[in-house]
Specification:
8 helices, 17% strand, Glutaredoxin, 3 domains, 3-stranded antiparallel sheet, single chain, 5-stranded mixed sheet
Length: 321
């Protein structure tokens, strides 16, 4: 790279003047820019050349490609471009899909539908981290709500790793039945396995996309649980690894078409609305205000009716006892 030579600049010197001159010298000493009467000497030329060289090199460095194997911060790794969860609300799951249960018996997905809503989780049983967190978050929420697995709803976990065996599924079921602190709930938890064709069919129907990383010998995938109606239609998606017990309960009550839950749940469903973008239930302010106004009118009506039924006490006439 060719560097330009800066010739010294000579300008008229300011008049000398005692303290003013000393202040001017001190001020000029702390300034990088040349002033009138100063010569840009060797040091100034070197500094200016260094600045020009740095400015010329910075753009060239920013254009250099990143080292092999390192993905720039503003780009998504290639393997992550094909994974995610696409909400397919009201989509029908293939209930005829063949699977195997924890005991190795041949079953169909529809064997776990028909009576109660279902909490569905796509995991794989030898996952080193994320799938375990999904199941931990699920059982943590289910331990809080008053609805019971096996009585009010079912839990169905399906492995999307065709290498998982029924023995892996049985070990997972035993582990989470221990964590789920409800007696006689074994009939409400199901851990299933299947072949690659069945897994592809089920995950595609639910909008669950994943990829296998051969270098790490692991699957790259997102995390969520889904609530499904007794007829096998997807109605709610809850993202992440922790699920608000209130949201999960409302989703189950809604999926059951009001067949489970309490009158309080119906009131909450009137005042809350499911937001697909966030996977949560939020207040509907207008409905909440209407409900509060109605409750106020009912209280006033009851109070007026109660007061009108009270007979006034007779006032004794003057002069009588």
């Amino acid at each position: 790279m060719r560097l330009e030579t800066f010739s010294p600049l000579t300008l008229p010197s300011p008049p000398a003047g005692g303290r003013g001159e000393l202040a001017g010298r001190a001020s000029r000493k702390n300034s990088l820019a040349p002033r009138r009467g100063e010569r840009v000497g060797v040091r100034g030329g070197i500094l200016a050349a260094a600045l020009v060289l740095t400015a010329a090199l910075l753009p060239a460095q920013s254009m250099d490609p990143p080292p092999t194997g390192i993905v720039p911060a503003n780009q998504k790794p290639e393997i992550l471009k094909d994974i995610g969860i696409e909400q397919r609300l009201d989509a029908q799951l293939p209930l005829d899909a063949p699977l195997r249960d924890e005991a190795g018996r041949a079953v169909r997905l529809g064997d776990y539908f028909g009576k109660r809503p279902v909490v569905l989780a796509f995991v794989y049983y030898n996952c080193p981290m994320l799938c375990t967190q999904v199941l931990n978050g699920l059982v943590g929420s289910l331990n809080v709500i008053s609805l019971d697995a096996g009585a009010d709803f079912d839990v169905v976990a399906i492995s999307f790793d065709s290498r998982d065996k029924p023995s892996d599924a049985a070990a997972k079921k035993d582990a989470y039945l221990t964590r789920y602190k409800r007696p006689n709930s074994a009939g409400g938890w199901h851990f299933l396995t299947g072949d690659e064709a069945t897994i592809t069919r089920l995950t595609k129907a639910a909008g669950f996309r994943f990829r296998f990383d051969e270098g790490l010998d692991q699957f790259a995938h997102a995390s969520a649980i889904m609530v499904v109606t007794p007829q096998g239609r997807l109605v709610r998606y809850f993202y992440g690894i922790e699920y608000a017990p209130r949201d999960l309960r409302l989703g189950l009550v809604e999926a059951s078409a009001g067949k489970i839950g309490t009158p309080v749940d119906q009131i909450l469903l009137y005042c809350f609305h499911y937001d697909p973008s966030s996977g949560k239930y939020g207040w509907i302010v207008v409905r909440a205000v209407r409900l509060a106004a109605l409750a106020t009118l009912v209280v006033l009506a009851v109070a007026i009716a109660t007061m009108s039924r009270r007979r006034p006490r007779p006032v004794p006439a003057r002069g009588t006892r």
